[in-house]
Amino acid sequence: MSSDKARILVADDESSIRWVLATALEESGYSVRQAESGTEALAALEKNPPDVAFIDLRMPGLDGLEVLRRARAAGVAAPIIIVTAQNTMDNAIEAMKQGAFDYVTKPFNVDEVRAIAARAAEMARMSADSGELNSEVRQRYEPTVALIGKSSEMQDIYKTIGRVANTDATILIQGESGTGKDLIAKVLHYHSSRWTGPFVALNCSAIPRELLESELFGYERGAFTGATEQRPGKFEQAEGGTLLLDEIGDMPLELQAKLLRVLQEREVTRLGGTEVIPVSCRIIAATNQPLDRAVQQGRFREDLYFRLNVVPIRVPPLRDRAADIPSLIDFFLEKINAEMGTDIRSISGAARERLIRHGWPGNVRELENTLIRSAVLAAGPTLMPEDLSLATEPVATAPSADASLDDLVRDKLTSLLRTAEVDGNLHATVIEAIERPLIQLTLEKTGGNQLQAAAILGINRNTLRKKISSLGIDPRRASGDADDD
């Protein structure tokens, strides 16, 4: 961007001031647009941002500081110079606090204005060059990391990533095995301001507990048998970048306390050492376990859970976002062809439908592995149903003792939706199936006392009576008054 091509916006409610500024700048080779109000200036900044802007402090409608504030909030990066006749300390400080490039007082010196414009135009040019270089470097060196899915569940995850990527907030990613938690962590890293730094991952369940501490914090030579040299830990290796603590729920309790201290103090001490080493890395934790339940069971520290759970991201299982399966199929087949030299050009409608209907207990990882196996063994360029080797649906097992009510209901509803004929009356069927045993058990608890039962259920007695009648419940059985069969 040379000065004769730089575009400058001049905004002032006084036509004479606009004329003086515009004339001086045009004589210096700049292209000048004019605005006579704050509203008009803001619209020009947002719709077709100039390279530099001179904005008057006092204008009808929006004043110059408000224009500056809103422009910065909208992402306008152009250098903005505030012009005013009110030369006060408060105005000057506030203008610079809001991100103004400079501050010019009236009456101004034309040569001074030209010099400020030249500096601002040069800064805008350098900023543009830096942005282009940054973009080019990203395209050339950034690993290919992509999340696939257009479902509402995935859209929510994308929005969360966009909101927090450029912060250093700690992220806790929770989801079943195979849902792509590590991939989400990488996307967070490569869309953050730390993307040029290292991405370091540590699987807390894959390393013996006696070695996990040294992996995390490092060690000095002679710290233990076999420590023949100094070695930095994962926190130091991730300096300036991101550290993923995968399967954090499997970390031993005694090590959780040490991890908590590092997260609080942002410093580590290697095993066998005394030097305190400051660390600066973004922490992302991932787990396939419900950590809140692990806290209740005493397997995970509550204070560490709250420290990690600053921004939670829950990754839905593939069965809950079946709408994404077609896109995942196409993505994986293209990837498999490129990496394995296969030549799968299409997939039949019946095969695609079979994949969509499968329950995918192994989630996205299982889908990818199924497609790899099918593509390698396929007889032709089109995948057919007989090419797919799908595991049978898992046999239903008794729920675990620590399963939550939400988990139990979800499991039952998932099974119902897979096997039942959905005839438009599903809601009423499910509500009745839940209400009947709920009311029966409550009546049994109260010995048939409907007033007490209504109080426990949180409904009035008349409502309870109507439900007893409509659901065909015999209240005498609960009180023990019913005749034996």
Describe this structure in words.
With 485 residues, this protein is α/β, with parallel strands linked by helices. The chain has 4 domains: 7-138, 3-Layer(aba) Sandwich (Rossmann fold); 155-314, Rossmann fold; 318-387, Helicase, Ruva Protein, domain 3 (Orthogonal Bundle), CATH 1.10.8; 421-479, Orthogonal Bundle (Arc Repressor Mutant, subunit A). Helix content is 48%, strand content 12%. The protein has 20 helices and 16 strands. The strands form 5 sheets. The protein has a 5-stranded parallel β-sheet, sandwiched between helices. A 5-stranded parallel β-sheet has the order 7-10-13-6-14. A two-stranded antiparallel sheet has the order 8-9. Helix 1 links the parallel strand 1 and strand 2. Helix 17 crosses helix 18 (450-457). The longest helix is centred in the first third of the chain and has 32 residues, at 110-141. The radius of gyration is 32 Å and the shape is extended. Residues 136-142 and 393-398 have low confidence and may be disordered.
Q: Descriptors for this entry?
A:
485 residues, alpha/beta, Rossmann fold, Helicase, Ruva Protein, domain 3, 5-stranded parallel beta sheet, 12% strand
Strand element count: 16
* Secondary structure: helix percent: 40-55%
CATH class division of the largest domain: Alpha Beta
Report the biggest beta sheet as strand number plus sense, adding barrel if it closes. Answer: 5 strands, parallel
What sort of overall outline do the alpha carbons produce when their principal axes are compared?
A: extended
Strands in their spatial order, largest beta sheet: 2-1-3-4-5
Which class do the helix and strand fractions yield? Answer: alpha/beta
Report, as a whole number of angstroms, the end-to-end distance.
Answer: 95 Å
Question: What's the CATH superfamily of the largest domain, by name?
Answer: P-loop containing nucleotide triphosphate hydrolases
- Regions with pLDDT < 50 over 5+ consecutive residues? 136-142, 393-398
CATH architecture of the largest domain: 3-Layer(aba) Sandwich
Q: β content, as a range?
A: 5-15%
Rg of Cα set:
32 Å
The total count of helices amounts to: 20
- CATH fold field value of the largest domain: Rossmann fold
Task: Calculate the mean pLDDT score and round it.
Answer: 84
Q: How many domains comprise the coordinates?
A: 4
